[in-house]
Fold this protein.
Amino acid sequence: MDADVMQLARQLLDSGLTRLSEREQRIITMIAKRSHVARNVDTVLAERQTFGERLVDRVAQLGGSWGFIAIFAGMLVAWVVLNTVILARSGGGFDPYPYIFLNLILSMVAALQAPMILMSLCRRLRPRLAALAQNRPPSRRLRRAAVRRQALTFRNWSGSDKIKV
């Protein structure tokens, strides 16, 4: 590794930054300034978000919170009590016992909220999955081939077909 560093240093001293690509120049400059070369993926993505993406993130954040669950449960209890009391006193509330209208409202909330939460999750996971794909470890097949090569090298070196531990 030291030889690689020395070669890079010689190349930079001999030719300067002009022969390097723009990305390499930016990285060398950041190293010289002793600042971070890597950027936080979350802040970069937050800067590029559209209004719709911010809205979906807010809906997902609200819909996945305990506060939302508590408020929603309170509204459901209030709906049932209000309709049951109105039903008992006036002889027929606007949404009697099977609460069909309430069921319709709950279905619409679920139909709108679930895709928004999934869109937010997919959008947040996409850059992380791409980063993992770039830095992923070798596949099982490649690892097995490497182990086989090592075993063959050991057999050739030791001169025997049996490996002793």
Remarks:
- The longest helix spans residues 100-134.
- The mean pLDDT is 78.
- Helices lie at 2-15, 22-32, 41-48, 51-63, 66-90, 100-134, 140-158.
